[in-house]
Amino acid sequence: MSLSPAVDTTSLPDWTIKDTRMSQPEPTARIEKHAAGAEYDFREGCAITEWWNHPADDAVSVVRARVAAGAVTRWHRLHGTTERYLLLEGAGRVEVGDQPPASVGPGDTVVIPPGQRQRITNIGNADLVFLAVCTPRFRDDNYEDIDSSGER
């Protein structure tokens, strides 16, 4: 004996008995491998390794950034893009917008809203390493160098 009543599906509209999940393609998993030595010097004053920045995925980009001991990146801003620094190694001092400078280190996250001026200084004796996660993804035309503009 069944506890649930029988349902006569012949009297129901078609949309109630269709499984819409069957008509949508499943996302495809992928693994991206990056060759050793893919790091390059970026005009901002740090070394970058692109981990993910693909036109087919406009939602996000991820780079590994490395700032040498004693180095300071240039003042810059990203238009239309929120950037997050996820600190992995080293010691730094970050400056964002009109906020006072703040010390940062491994485990810290810095959230930088679109259009905010920013720079980071390595205040340690070893490399400062962090992931820079941008949403939507980083595009060069969203980058503005303001170091020489005198803007604060």
UniProtKB/TrEMBL annotation:
CDD domains: cupin_MJ1618 (cd02214). Residues 1-13 have a biased composition (Polar residues). Residues 65-134 form the Cupin type-2 domain. Coiled coil: none annotated. Gene3D superfamilies: Jelly Rolls. Residues 1-29 are annotated as: Disordered. InterPro entries: Cupin_2, PKS_Associated_Protein, RmlC-like_jellyroll, RmlC_Cupin_sf. PANTHER family: 16.7 KDA PROTEIN IN WHIE LOCUS. This is Cupin domain-containing protein. The lineage of its organism: Bacteria, Pseudomonadati, Pseudomonadota, Gammaproteobacteria, Salinisphaerales.
